[in-house]
Specification:
The protein is built from eight helices and no strands. The protein has one domain. By secondary structure, the chain is mainly alpha-helical. Helices cover about 65% and strands about 0% of the residues.
Length: about 170
């Protein structure tokens, strides 16, 4: 059986992430599920841990984009320091930092920021205060869950898949 190419797996992660965001919402968990399913690296605790990261953390918008933070969590789960090696004399955490910066660069190029508030302004023309039910409904009616956020999630999943595979963090 032929190994899938990086581009094929990146596209699979892109499409899964988009579809999960359209269907289930919760950008951090949707990017994690897309990455995990495309790369066959399921981790239910990591997925569950990302619940509160949606909508710029707790739907507040003033934190990192959920798709951005969720993808970084997957990266850290693959190349982060272990609790049993907390002192990290090898400097493993520095590899994680380097790859996070590489991912951040792609995000900034595309969306101008990694902060949900600014990304909403760029792609939707304004910020929506999502804890308010009326604002949340306006956000949804503006196409956030059908068009805009799925695209952000899909791109985050694609870019992180490329980084993971190009760096050889898992074998596929």
């Amino acid at each position: 059986m032929e190994k899938p190419k990086i581009s094929e797996l990146a596209e699979k992660a892109y499409h899964l992430g988009k579809e999960y965001e359209r269907t289930y919402r919760g950008c951090a968990q949707c990017v994690i599920a897309g990455l995990q399913d495309a790369l066959d690296i399921r981790n239910d605790l990591l997925f569950k841990s990302a619940t509160s990261l949606a909508g710029g953390i707790g739907l507040m918008g003033d934190g990192g984009c959920g798709a951005y933070t969720g993808a970084i969590l997957v990266l850290g789960s693959l190349v982060g320091r272990e609790r049993t090696n907390f002192s990290d004399p090898e400097g493993i955490r520095h590899k994680t930092y380097q790859l996070t910066r590489k991912f951040r660069e792609k995000f900034i190029q595309e969306f101008g920021s990694v902060i949900c508030f600014y990304i909403q302004n760029k792609i939707l023309g304004r910020y929506y205060y999502l804890p308010d039910p009326q604002e949340y409904e306006k956000f949804h009616k503006a196409g956030a869950h059908d068009i805009y956020c799925p695209e952000v999630v899909g791109k985050a999943a694609r870019w992180m898949t490329e980084i993971i595979l190009e760096e050889g963090l898992i074998s596929k």
